[in-house]
Specification:
Blueprint lengths: L17 H6 L4 E5 L2 E4 L4 E4 L2 H4 L8 H13 L11 H13 L4 E7 L2 H18 L7 E5 L8 H6 L3 H4 L9 E4 L22 H10 L4 E6 L15 H12 L2 E5 L13 H4 L6 E4 L11 E6 H9 L19 H16 L2 H17 L7 E7 L2 E6 L7 H12 L2 E2 L1 E3 L2 E4 L7 H17 L1
Parallel strand pairs: 3-13, 5-6, 5-7, 7-8, 8-9
Antiparallel strand pairs: 1-2, 2-3, 4-10, 9-10, 11-12, 12-15, 14-15
Helix pairs in contact: 3-12, 4-12, 5-11, 8-9, 13-15
Length: 437
């Protein structure tokens, strides 16, 4: 597609400095494997799996063909009062991957919608059990749970909160786990498990029987890959159990093999009550998300409305379980299974983290973190907060590498099909660009 006249003018681009982008656009026109091709014909290594979603790489023919067949056969089915076999089969396949006991799957279209659904279902569950007073939520500083009002409210990233008012009432935030004692820590930090006691403090302040759910990302992704301290998540689980609070894991970023297992819940051996997912569920080919629920949550909500023909949960989306998205999801799960990509990610983690942590000697680098196939490099600020990070993003693009940058942190999360040679290319570009600063 050619850029003609003011072609770029009419789109309002998300999470992007629009004026600067339109003056010097970074456009892609083709993608295959671990590379994208920009509008000048240059190959760019995708070192962030798009936005943590193209885990199996780009241009997967299996997904393309499945989507094409589905569009030709049946393009849409109303998800309210009707259904199609593909969504039920995908729900079964997803439930095979989720932690034991989370067997009920609700389909949505994005991570933001997944979080919204999780919060609503938590309220519905407590109401069904006669505890309608449980209306509070506990989130965490520096957490990211999407951009809808529910997710923004429980999230803790300042720029996502300060422009849109106070959000939902009754939300409490725990402190984040990014503490100096764990700087340059590979994997889980030795310090900070006691930060989970902030949840107990919320209980002591407000009463445990007023809190519906506590929501955290097992690894906080968009804020800069904050890996939990050892024992932190288990401590949250214990406090939730003690006070009847639902524990929600937001695995939109760290699900589908990113930690070397199907979900981070498996990697950290902590089972939540609700688990949100998106991104990797379709390899990014078609928008989709989902929420997995413990059996008792589904059963409580369903059983609370025994009358025939009465809707139990007044929630859903026009495109929930869309036939084309389901086709993409089923093809994606086949790829993960047939190619053993979760196991491959586990094997690739060490060489990946070796390369990321090799940047520790650079003067500009103030911290490095990583787990599985997720890594982050903090840069010393220069000028306004985020200015150096943005410059680094542009320079890496010009050097042929696509990364994710948040404030002054560079995040890398290559596709699970990457070879060590691709990791070398990523690291060499990072070293070259960061040495210039």
């Amino acid at each position: 597609m050619q850029i003609v006249g003011n072609t770029l003018e009419h789109q309002w681009i998300p999470f992007t400095p629009n004026k600067h982008f339109k003056a010097d656009p970074r456009l892609f026109v083709r993608a295959e494997g671990v590379y994208l091709v920009n509008h000048h014909g240059g190959k760019v290594l995708d070192a962030s799996s798009g936005l943590f979603c193209s885990n199996a790489g780009h241009g997967r023919r299996e997904i393309t063909e499945a989507v094409a067949r589905q569009v030709q056969e049946m393009d849409f089915v109303p998800p309210f009062q009707y259904g199609h076999p593909g969504s039920f089969e995908l729900a079964r396949r997803v439930a095979e991957l989720t932690p034991e006991g989370l067997n009920y799957i609700f389909f949505v279209n994005s991570g933001s919608e997944a979080v919204e659904t999780a919060l609503k279902a938590a309220l519905a569950y407590h109401r069904a059990r006669g505890e309608a007073q449980r209306v509070r939520f506990v989130g965490r500083e520096r957490g990211y749970h999407g951009v809808n009002f529910g997710g923004m409210s429980v999230g803790g990233m300042v720029k996502n909160r300060e422009s849109f008012g106070t959000g939902l009432p009754g939300v409490i935030h725990m402190r984040h786990t990014h503490i100096p004692e764990n700087r340059f820590q590979r994997g889980e930090g030795e310090h900070g498990a006691d930060l989970a006691d902030d949840l107990q403090r919320a209980v002591d302040l407000c009463g445990g029987d007023t809190i519906a759910a506590c929501i955290v990302e097992p690894i906080a992704g968009s804020t800069g890959i904050l890996v939990p301290p050892k024992g932190y998540l288990k401590r949250l689980r214990e406090i939730c159990d003690r006070h009847g609070i639902l524990l929600v894991f937001d695995e939109v970023i760290c699900g589908f093999g990113r930690t070397g297992k199907a979900f981070a819940a498996h990697s950290f051996d902590v089972t939540p009550d609700i688990l949100t997912m998106a991104k990797g569920i379709t390899n990014g080919a078609v928008p989709m998300g989902a929420v997995a629920f413990r059996d008792r949550i589904y059963q409580a909500v369903i059983d609370a409305t025994p009358a025939e023909g009465v809707i139990e949960f007044f929630h859903g989306y026009t495109y929930s379980g869309h036939p084309v998205a389901c086709a993409a999801g089923l093809a994606t799960l086949d790829i993960y299974k047939n190619e053993g990509l979760f196991e491959r990610a586990a094997r690739l983690s060490k060489p990946f983290l070796d390369r990321v942590f090799s940047l520790k000697d650079l003067a500009i680098v103030t911290d490095i973190r990583g787990y599985g196939m997720l890594g982050a490099v903090d840069l010393a600020p220069s000028g306004k907060p985020g200015q150096r990070g943005y410059q680094t993003l542009i320079q890496l693009f010009e050097a042929g590498v696509l990364t994710r940058v948040t404030a002054d942190t560079v995040i890398v999360a290559p596709p699970l099909i990457a070879e060590e040679s691709h990791l070398d290319q990523m690291t060499e570009a990072l070293r070259k660009v960061l040495t210039r600063h």
